[in-house]
Specification:
CATH class: Alpha Beta
Distance between the termini: 41 Å
Strand order of the largest sheet: 1-2-4-3
Strand content: 35-45%
CATH superfamily: RRM (RNA recognition motif) domain
Structural class: alpha+beta
Radius of gyration: 14 Å
Number of domains: 1
CATH architecture: 2-Layer Sandwich
Helix content: 25-40%
Length: about 100
């Protein structure tokens, strides 16, 4: 899967960069997690610092356009992002909840 960055916009107040990207794929629309991992690898960031918000594939096309937020650290992502978006991107959550219950 090829990931091309269309635009980047710095957002220093929230310690992140907003990114619009396009990915080309051979088969079905890729999963949110595989796109997140590919985008993180391209930007030399950890997967926990990348939050994919939007993936849009037109019917029959092999291109997907998306929107992601790349944070300076995983802690910044946990502080700013909404819970459902963190759940969708599998950031935080599971290990932390078990630790709090114990």
């Amino acid at each position: 899967m090829d990931v091309d960055i269309i635009s980047e916009e710095e957002n220093p107040m929230l310690h992140r960069t907003d990114i619009r990207f396009e990915t080309t794929h051979e088969e079905a629309t890729p999963s949110r997690l595989s796109v997140r991992d590919s985008l993180a690898a391209k930007l030399d960031k950890a997967s926990e610092e990348v939050v994919v918000h939007e993936l849009d594939t037109k019917f029959g096309m092999r291109k997907t356009v998306g929107y992601a937020k790349v944070y300076d650290s995983a802690e910044d992502a946990l502080d700013v992002e909404q819970e459902y978006m963190l759940d969708r991107n599998k950031i935080g959550g599971e290990g932390d909840a078990d630790a709090e219950e114990a």
